[in-house]
């Protein structure tokens, strides 16, 4: 089987892709033999290898060679591929759902991906006649693809509609074991397949949703046996996931879009004479939201199929909310509710996104109201926003302990921010529910605050923004101030942590246009954190949340602040917090070990804050004004260098961030080195030397070498050489052997080799006698006696051009000479 996989992906000189005739003949031979070998299908032991063969065949062979095979062979191959894919879909989904075994699921993903590649190749192939093109479409595209999609849907629905077995729960219980994540590798290619039969799929899906809704209504009213409710909930869950991953797509940044094939289908209907009424569209969707159980058949021929499906989704979401509001919670599954929010979020965001018809030639001549998008009428927007706000906030109010469900609900609210921020901000229902909701008590408090701030910032109305600020942020701030003034108690400290996490959500929502207002608000909180660091120094949770808030303020907010006074005020507060952290927290690291993850996380946060501060440093001049980013970092280094021992540096995240901080300091603010005391400078160099040993990983070795280069270069220029103390110069001399040996022993590690050459060049340029003395010591070793003549000659050639501080061209030439030097001394030089 491995040989067949290799033959399927054969490339190179033995099978040049450019030779079309040879490629087509090879594909013909390969497919013929493959069909003969597996005419009964692969055995269960061969399944994964067989799917890999199909996958590699379509990825590595020109697809035109597959399409242009003889009609009889091509038809047999496509029929076999269709039948086997349907068979494997049944087998894999039964095992995945019923037995929680995913080996065949993995194989199915391979063959699904291969079919998508083949389908795309169909549209890149030109055929000699329309008859041949139609034959390929019938054999491969329209009905075969729809059959595969339907097979998948049948396997996720329970009898009598489908064949889904009783589900076996996954053991992990984490995000990766959720259906939406676990089966994403199938949903992605399925969404591409659906595009080729989008009309039929929308018709089938609308029927499924309508029937499912009617069944639930019957169970809710008692006219249908409710014993099937758990099975129905699972069916609806899979319908929601299928819908969320088919007609709409989601980008990496969370923005959603309606599939282009849905627009193409609408365009075809438009040019065929079927046009849709914008007013009827709004009436239909309003009916689905406000009267979801009413008959909607009258709109079936007057509304775009995509909008029909969106209406069925709205109707289900509305019924779900009504049942929940009427205290029938036993009929609502939190998992189903999450899937509903996922689907609703994607449809809301995708259908509300603006579409510029004139931008796309394909849609010219199609009026905007005929496209599959949300109605633009102001009255409908108010109805839609009211519906979403009530559904989202009622879940937060009543299901606050369900963290994942609440997060999906918040994400659903965010889906309307870009298109309806002002409507949300002016919605009476928003504040009605918020008055009943203690945001600080929610597990998702930070994300909810972020969402509310984003809504306020996107509402293009100063009055609405001020109203949200006054009704949401101000009361929260006042409650925080009151809690801070109370002596430390377990309950009070827990409240303070909740408030800090709320403010962290505010910081994360900062954007360039909202940062000035948010900075003023958050700076008042940070001022309180100065005293809080002292009064709650023993409470590690409070300290950690203060650090997280400051990190996000320096990352998301202060970066947009151009006012020097405000930045320096922040630095002044940070200096006080650094003092508190150094005085009260340093003892926590006295007995540090690699199991202390909480301590390591705090330290990593603290170092991140310093890196952010350093990146926005004004470097203001004046003896009294020392509140600059670089000086904050120097002040902090005095504490950090006292605790950065071997045990602390064994934590990879802490070590890497610490050595990067040193690099940022010496590279972007070399002037700050003059602010350091001799003792601090010596400790810094000793730490750099420790990083060069290689015991903390390659990246830290490279970073330490780069830091050393920057320090030596700074003191190597004439105007700074007088500031270099004798002790510091001796430290450079002590590090030279380590740098030289690192250079010789890392010739295969490009980054380390390049940085060690640069560091060595900088030290030699700083003081040539250091290197000469070291070389003489090496040559005097008894172990180097036999090769002394060759070594002397090699060192002489290496140093034929005297290094100069800051000469980049000279540094490149030195590295080239070093490569020749290494070739000459192979096996001759001994360090001992």
From TrEMBL:
Kindly state a single biological-process term from the GO annotations of this entry.
Answer: protein transport
Matches recorded under InterPro entries = ARM-like, ARM-type_fold, XPO4/7-like
**Per UniProt, what is one GO molecular function of this protein?**
nuclear export signal receptor activity
Q: Which UniProt keywords apply?
A: Cytoplasm, Nucleus, Protein transport, Transport
Q: Where in the cell is it found?
A: Cytoplasm; Nucleus
* GO cellular component terms, A-Z: cytoplasm; nucleus
SUPFAM superfamilies for the chain: ARM repeat
Report if keyword Nucleus is assigned: yes
In this entry, which stretches build a coiled coil? Answer: none
What family is it from? Belongs to the exportin family.
Q: What is this protein called?
A: Exportin-4
């Amino acid at each position: 089987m491995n040989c067949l996989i290799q033959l399927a992906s054969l490339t190179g000189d033995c099978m040049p892709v450019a030779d079309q005739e040879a490629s087509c003949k090879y594909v013909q031979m390969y497919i013929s033999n493959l069909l003969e070998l597996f005419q009964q299908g692969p055995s269960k032991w061969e399944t994964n290898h067989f799917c890999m063969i199909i996958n590699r065949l379509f990825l590595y062979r020109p697809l035109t060679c597959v399409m242009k095979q003889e009609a009889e062979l091509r038809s047999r191959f496509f029929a076999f591929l269709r039948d086997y894919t349907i068979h494997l879909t049944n087998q894999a989904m039964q095992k995945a759902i019923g037995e929680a075994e995913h080996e065949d699921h993995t194989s199915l993903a391979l063959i699904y991906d291969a079919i998508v590649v083949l389908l795309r190749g169909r549209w890149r192939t030109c055929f000699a006649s329309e008859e041949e093109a139609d034959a390929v479409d019938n054999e491969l595209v329209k009905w075969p693809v729809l059959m595969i999609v339907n097979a998948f849907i049948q396997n996720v629905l329970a009898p009598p509609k489908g064949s889904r077995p009783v589900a076996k729960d996954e053991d992990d219980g984490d995000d990766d074991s959720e259906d939406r994540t676990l089966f994403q590798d199938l949903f992605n290619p399925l969404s591409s397949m659906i595009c080729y039969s989008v009309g039929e799929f929308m018709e089938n899906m609308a029927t499924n949703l309508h029937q499912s809704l009617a069944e639930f209504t019957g169970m809710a009213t008692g006219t249908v046996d409710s014993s099937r409710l758990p099975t129905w909930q699972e069916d609806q869950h899979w319908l929601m996931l299928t819908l969320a991953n088919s007609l709409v797509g989601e980008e990496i940044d969370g923005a959603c879009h309606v599939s282009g094939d849905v627009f193409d289908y609408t365009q075809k209907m438009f040019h065929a004479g079927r046009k849709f009424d914008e007013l009827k569209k709004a009436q239909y969707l309003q009916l689905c939201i406000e009267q979801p159980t009413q008959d909607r058949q009258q709109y079936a021929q007057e509304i775009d199929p995509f909008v029909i499906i969106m209406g069925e989704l709205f109707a289900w979401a509305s019924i779900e909310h009504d049942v929940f509001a009427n205290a029938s919670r036993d009929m609502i599954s939190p998992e189903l509710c999450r899937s509903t929010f996922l689907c609703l979020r994607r449809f809301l965001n995708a259908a509300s996104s603006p579409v510029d018809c004139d931008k796309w030639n394909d849609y010219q001549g199609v009026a905007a109201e005929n496209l599959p998008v949300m109605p633009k009428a102001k009255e409908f927007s108010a109805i839609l926003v009211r519906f979403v706000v009530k559904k989202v906030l009622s879940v937060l109010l009543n299901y606050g302990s369900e963290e994942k469900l609440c997060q999906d609900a918040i994400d659903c609210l965010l889906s309307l921010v870009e298109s309806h921020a002002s409507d949300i901000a002016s919605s009476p229902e928003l504040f009605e529910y918020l008055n009943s909701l203690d945001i600080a008590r929610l597990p998702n408090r930070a994300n909810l605050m972020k969402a509310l701030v984003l809504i306020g910032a996107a509402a293009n109305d100063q009055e609405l923004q001020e109203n949200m600020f006054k009704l949401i942020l101000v009361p929260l701030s006042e409650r925080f101030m009151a809690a801070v003034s109370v002596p430390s108690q377990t309950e009070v400290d827990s409240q303070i942590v909740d408030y800090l996490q709320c403010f962290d959500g505010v910081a994360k929502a900062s954007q360039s246009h909202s940062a000035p207002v948010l900075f003023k608000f958050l700076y008042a909180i940070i001022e309180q954190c100065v005293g809080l660091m002292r009064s709650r120094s023993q409470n590690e949770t409070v300290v950690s949340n203060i650090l997280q808030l400051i990190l996000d303020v320096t990352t998301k907010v202060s970066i947009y602040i151009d006012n020097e006074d405000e930045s320096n005020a922040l630095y002044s507060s940070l200096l006080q917090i650094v003092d508190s952290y150094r005085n009260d927290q340093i003892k926590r690291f006295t007995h540090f070990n690699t199991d202390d993850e909480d301590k390591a996380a705090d330290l990593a946060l603290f170092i991140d804050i310093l890196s952010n501060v350093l990146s926005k440093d004004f470097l203001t001049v004046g003896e009294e004004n020392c509140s600059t980013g670089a000086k904050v970092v120097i002040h902090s280094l005095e504490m950090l260098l006292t605790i950065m021992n071997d045990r602390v540096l064994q934590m990879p995240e802490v070590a890497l961030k610490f050595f990067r901080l040193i690099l940022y300091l010496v590279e972007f603010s070399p002037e700050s080195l003059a602010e350091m005391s001799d003792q601090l400078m010596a400790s810094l160099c000793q730490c750099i030397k420790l990083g060069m040993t290689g015991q903390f990983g390659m990246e830290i070795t490279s970073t330490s070498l780069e830091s050393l280069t920057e320090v030596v270069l700074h003191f190597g220029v004439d105007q700074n050489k007088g500031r270099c103390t004798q002790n510091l110069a001796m430290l450079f001399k002590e590090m030279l052997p380590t740098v030289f040996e690192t250079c010789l022993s890392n010739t295969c590690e490009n980054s380390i080799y390049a940085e060690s050459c640069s560091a060595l060049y900088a030290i030699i340029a700083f003081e040539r006698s250091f290197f000469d003395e070291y070389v003489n010591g090496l040559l005097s070793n008894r172990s180097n006696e036999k090769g002394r003549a060759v070594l002397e000659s090699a060192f002489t050639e290496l140093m034929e051009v005297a290094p100069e501080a800051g000469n980049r061209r000279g540094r490149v030439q030195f590295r080239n000479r070093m490569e020749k030097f290494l070739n000459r001394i192979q096996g001759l030089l001994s360090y001992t």
